[in-house]
Amino acid sequence: QVQLVESGVGLVQSGGSLGLSCAASGRTVSSFANAMGWLRQSPGKERELIAAISWSGGNTYYADSVKGRFTISRDSAKNTVYLQMNSLKPEDTAVYYCAASPVGIKAKTYNYWGQGTQVTVSS
Predict the structure, then answer these.
(1) 9-39 as b/e, with b when 16 or more CB fall inside 10 Å?
(2) Which of 11, 42, 53, 109 is deepest in the core (most CB within 10 A)?
């Protein structure tokens, strides 16, 4: 059974940095996903894909809203994907989810999800 468990501190001031991690257990990521992504959802808004990484080749995708500020990375040996968030803004406040896609970095199909982590950026 696949589980994605997120961790990371969720409160930071505007302009600060925060790192999230998502560890997969039960199976190796390569056995159930071609890509891992981070998505976020804030109240009243649709869930959006903000970053994704192909598990084998390391190709990445970033939404325009986070490009240049966020970095996604993976550690295959640890079965873990990371999201480093710098220069955070209040509008980055949202619940952040890691998820696994059997398709690819720009896919809208995600079949395994983390529990969600609240990230709050205070002004």
Answers:
(1) eeebeeeeebebbbbbeeeebeebbbbbbbb
(2) 53
What is the rounded CA–CA span in Å between residue 15 and residue 102? 34
Encode pLDDT of 67-111 as tens digits.
999 999 999 999 999 999 999 999 999 999 999 999 999 888 999
In the DSSP assignment, the letter for residue 3 is: E
If you search the block for the tokens 């550690």, which residue do you land on? Answer: 75
Task: Return phi, psi of residue 24, to 5°.
Answer: -95, 140
What are the pLDDT digits (tens) for 6-55?
Answer: 999 789 999 999 999 999 999 999 999 999 999 999 989 999 999 999 99
Nearest to 24 by CA among 116, 117, 110, 113: 113
Token readout for 55 is: 């598990």
Measured in whole angstroms, the distance separating CA 123 from the mean position of its chain's CA atoms is 23
